[in-house]
Amino acid sequence: MFPYLPTRVSKDCHPCETTPFPNLKKILKSLPHMPSEKLRTFLDGGISVIVATVDAEGVPSCCRGVAIDSKDDFDSVTVYVPAATAGETVANLATTRRIAVSCTEPLSHHSIQIKGLTRGVKLAASQDREFVAQRLEAFADTLDSFGLPRTVTRSLTHWPAFAIEVSVEQVFDQTPGPKAGEELR
């Protein structure tokens, strides 16, 4: 058995606090990060975006996002979710601020997960409408290559949308395979 591990783990216990390696957090933070250019290239394509939150009791909820962008080298991202389907998501963010955003390229299954804290939620500005529509169209093009007609994807509710500003804390590789769960940034 491992004598340095607790026999009973409380919900407040953090794995790095029970490890025999006291500098583990520092070592993990020093690992190389995925270059922002690679992240941007990934996010510029026709991707699937899923936004996950939890309520005050830890009950999970998710909704489809329609677009994601970063203007500051991925220190933060803005995720756009349809106002018509994001009520529970926005309510959860008002109480917990915790958010996870999964982005997947449907053709390759290349996936990342972004975790962070919400900086703010607002109704997306009218000038964001074209950006959101372009991202939905790119997603429609991708799914059309599988045989799903563009008209089906274009029928997804996408406007008006909420713009969720997220302070990025972690980025994980979620691509199926041996590196799934590896922290990228």
What would your notes on this structure say?
The chain is an alpha+beta fold. Helix content is 25%, strand content 30%. The protein contains 5 helices and 7 strands; from the N terminus they run ααββββαββααβ. It has a 7-stranded antiparallel β-sheet. 22% of the residues are buried.
Give a concise summary.
The chain is α+β, with helices and mostly antiparallel strands and 185 residues long.
Low-confidence stretches: 1-35
Distance between the termini: 32 Å
Mean pLDDT: 78
Strand order of the largest sheet: 2-1-5-6-7-4-3
Multimerization status: single chain
Helix/strand class: alpha+beta
The total of helices stands at 5
From the alpha-carbon coordinates, what is the Rg to the nearest angstrom? 18 Å
What helical percentage do the residues reach?
Answer: 25-40%
Note the overall shape.
globular
> What's the SSE pattern?
HHEEEEHEEHHE
Describe the secondary structure blueprint for this structure.
Elements (H helix, E strand, L loop, with lengths): L23 H7 L5 H9 L3 E7 L5 E6 L1 E3 L6 E7 L4 H10 L1 E7 L6 E13 L5 H16 L5 H5 L6 E13 L12
Task: Kindly list the characteristics that best describe this protein.
seven-stranded antiparallel β-sheet, single chain, 185 residues, disordered N terminus, alpha+beta, 5 helices
